[in-house]
Amino acid sequence: TEKITLYTSHLCPYAQRVAIALMETGIPHESVEIDLQNKPSWYDKINPELKNLLPADPIKRAEIRFAIEYFSSKVSPQFYSVLRNCTDEGKQIYLNNLTAAYKRLDELLVAQAPSGPYFLGDQYSLADIAIAPFAARLQAIEKHYLNDIAVPRSRRVKEFFEGIISRPSAVATFCGDDTLIDMLVSRWGVHDPRK
Questions:
Q1: Could you write out the DSSP letters of every residue in 19-61?
Q2: C-alpha distance across the termini of the chain, in Å
Q3: Can you say how many angstroms the Cα of residue 151 is from the centroid of all Cα atoms in its chain?
Q4: In this predicted model, what pLDDT tens digit does every residue of 89-107 receive, in sequence order?
Q5: Is the pTM of this model over 0.85?
Q6: Are 69 and 108 in contact (CB under 8 A)?
């Protein structure tokens, strides 16, 4: 099998989704780093195809798509907003919003399986790939910028986050806390919590 080329950015959570999917499906590939601030003119024309990581059941596929959309609209935006407003008030808003979002996420997870570690229980899927990059970033933000703020998470949500963040493909493709912080400092102008 011929290797495909993945044009990627180590800092981008969406690119990490693709890298995780490639590793999980065993598709041979090589990665070429692209500077997203200075993309080559041909970059936008590239569109690789991947094997589908959705179950055959159309209802399960719909539930996975809903979970991805829910997480993208209710959970992911919270870390961007708290970084822009890292005051006591901003942290309280973050805590309140995530507490409510995690309650609903728990319902979605338990509806699929009473235990994990993945969205569908023991079956890894596109939901896990789509959510893992953002869960890893939430964890890093909470650790470094919010002093490990105690956002209430159910057992199932904790198990889900631990499962998707610790998956070898997610670990191998995550840029790491230090690189993430460097990017936040240089591109967003937020303070460096390591200093």
A1: HHHHHHHT--EEEEE--TTS--TTGGG--------S-S-HHHH
A2: 48
A3: 17
A4: 999 999 999 999 999 999 9
A5: no
A6: no
